[in-house]
């Protein structure tokens, strides 16, 4: 009898059990209203109980999104084959196109509903505060999916409780996935880093082979405010380049109150000021004017040495762009100028999109004279075609930042320059809201910075893509 009473006590109350069922139904059917109402009912339960239920719901939303991603890709692949493979009369073609369009719209609607449900579940979990740390911490430690662990780490970092950094620091030596490890470090930066042994554990990741991990470690050290972080950051900046050097420089400026005109000067600064810094007597000098950057693309500074350039090659790129020039002519000249100005050894790729996605190479290539010559031939061989699959081009570039298994790529890109002269008209996602949400979710664990260039008319989604990632957006 005692065991029976214990089992009954462990069961959800009837109202909570029904709310769980409604929430699962809403997730499965793409019914955001039902899902939201169910979440509100779950929030009426004791906080630890509600937190466990919502953490489990978040896992179901993740699975649903992944399933819908696959379905959308399959529908778009089917759509892409219709032009080349459909035979028969107009009625046969119209029927196939109608079926593909309806399936695609259904997938897109379901993805928007899943995104809205995710946002509400996350918001509700964070409202529970410290009570959410137990189920999130359990997922962080025992989650079989690297993506689940990464997302749990992100949420732990957003909870204002002393237990949060302890959970994150404890995960550092155990995490085997590069992107999940980067998420743990980013979460530590969000909750103001760590001190003592935690600082040492973070500093050990500064020179990780994957850029996502190194940059997140630099941010976490800068946020932590521990004076002992300065020496490992100086050591790291001496070996770094591109955005990693910029990240280390930002952390050192924050920790020391010192601004150098050139980030490469930190090792000399450390040799001159180490004794005063360790003694606690260091006084920062007045800031000096920074040296101007030298590499630019359509007026944007190019600071990274791991770059993918994603470019519109749709029919409208034939439009005039000045006397005797079209938009594609200007683009070719800007692009060749960029490749000429970037240093040897920088990792680059060039991707054009219309109804096809054309990449210069399967993976980013190290720049040298041979690479520049071959890239120039590739660029000259691209001619504008009809439609605009912006999402397809962006996805191809993001796939060059890390592997789908959650491990980083030694030559992975960390920055994208995206140029278009119009709204997307083709591909798995064309609606602005859907495209931005899909890109945001895809990039959440990648951390790629996206800069955007709108040629001709203003393209609203470009501003959103840049803002989401801390990039710049310009109109030319």
Number of strands: 9
Please give the alpha-carbon distance between the first and last residues.
77 Å
In helices, the fraction of residues equals 55-70%
Q: What is the top-level CATH class of one domain?
A: Alpha Beta
Shape: flat
| Beta-strand content | 5-15%
CATH 2nd-level architecture of one domain: 3-Layer(aba) Sandwich
Q: Quick one: CATH superfamily of one domain?
A: von Willebrand factor, type A domain
What is the CATH topology of one domain? Rossmann fold
How would you explain this protein's 3D organization?
This protein has 476 residues and is α/β, with parallel strands linked by helices. Among the domains are: 116 residues, no CATH class; 180 residues, Rossmann fold, CATH 3.40.50. Helix content is 57%, strand content 8%. The protein contains 19 helices and nine strands. Strands 3, 4, 5, 6, 7, 8 and 9 form a seven-stranded mixed β-sheet that branches. The protein has a two-stranded antiparallel sheet with strand order 1-2. β1 and β2 form a beta hairpin. α2 packs parallel to α4, α4 packs antiparallel against α5 and α11 packs parallel to α13. The longest helix is centred in the N-terminal third of the chain and has 39 residues. It starts with a helix and ends with a strand.
């Amino acid at each position: 009898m005692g065991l029976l009473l214990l089992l009954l006590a462990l069961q959800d109350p009837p109202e909570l059990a029904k709310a769980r069922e409604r929430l699962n139904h809403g997730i499965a059917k793409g019914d955001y209203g039902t899902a939201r109402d169910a979440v509100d009912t779950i929030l009426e339960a004791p906080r630890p109980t509600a937190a466990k239920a919502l953490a489990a719901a978040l896992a179901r939303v993740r699975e649903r999104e992944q399933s819908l991603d696959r379905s959308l890709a399959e529908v778009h692949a089917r759509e892409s084959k219709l032009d080349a493979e459909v035979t028969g009369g107009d009625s046969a073609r119209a029927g196939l196109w109608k079926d593909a369009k309806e399936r695609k719209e259904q997938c897109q609607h379901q993805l928007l509903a899943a995104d809205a449900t995710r946002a509400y579940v996350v918001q509700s979990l964070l409202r529970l505060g410290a009570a959410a740390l137990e189920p999130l911490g359990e997922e962080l430690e025992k989650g079989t999916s690297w993506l689940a662990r990464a997302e749990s780490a992100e949420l732990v970092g957003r909870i204002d409780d002393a237990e949060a950094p302890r959970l994150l620091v404890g995960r550092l030596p155990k995490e085997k996935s590069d992107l999940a490890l980067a998420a743990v470090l980013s979460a530590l930066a969000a909750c103001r880093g760590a001190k003592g042994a935690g600082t040492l554990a973070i500093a050990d990741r500064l020179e990780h082979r994957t850029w996502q991990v190194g940059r997140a470690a630099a941010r976490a050290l800068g946020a932590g405010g521990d004076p002992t972080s300065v020496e490992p950051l100086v050591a790291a900046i001496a070996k770094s380049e591109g955005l990693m050097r910029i990240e280390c420089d930002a952390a050192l400026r924050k920790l020391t109150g010192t601004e150098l005109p050139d980030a490469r000067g930190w090792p000399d600064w450390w040799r001159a000021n180490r004794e005063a810094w360790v003694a606690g007597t260091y006084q920062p000098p007045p800031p000096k004017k920074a040296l101007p950057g030298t590499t630019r693309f359509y007026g944007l500074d190019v600071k990274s040495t791991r770059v993918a350039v994603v470019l519109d090659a749709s029919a409208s790129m034939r439009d005039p762009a000045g006397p005797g020039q079209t938009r594609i002519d200007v683009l070719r000249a800007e692009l060749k100028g960029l490749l000429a100005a970037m240093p040897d050894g920088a990792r680059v790729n060039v991707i054009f999109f219309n109804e096809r996605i054309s990449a210069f190479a399967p993976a980013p290539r190290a720049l040298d004279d041979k690479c520049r010559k071959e890239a120039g031939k590739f660029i000259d061989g691209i001619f504008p075609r009809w439609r605009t699959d912006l999402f397809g081009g962006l996805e191809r570039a993001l796939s060059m930042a890390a592997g789908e298994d959650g491990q980083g790529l030694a030559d992975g890109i960390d920055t994208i320059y995206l140029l278009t002269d119009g709204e997307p008209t083709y591909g798995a996602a064309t609606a602005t809201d859907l495209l931005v949400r899909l890109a945001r979710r895809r990039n959440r664990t990648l951390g790629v910075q996206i800069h955007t260039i709108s040629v001709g008319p203003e393209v609203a989604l470009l501003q959103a893509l840049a803002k989401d990632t801390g990039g710049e957006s310009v109109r030319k």
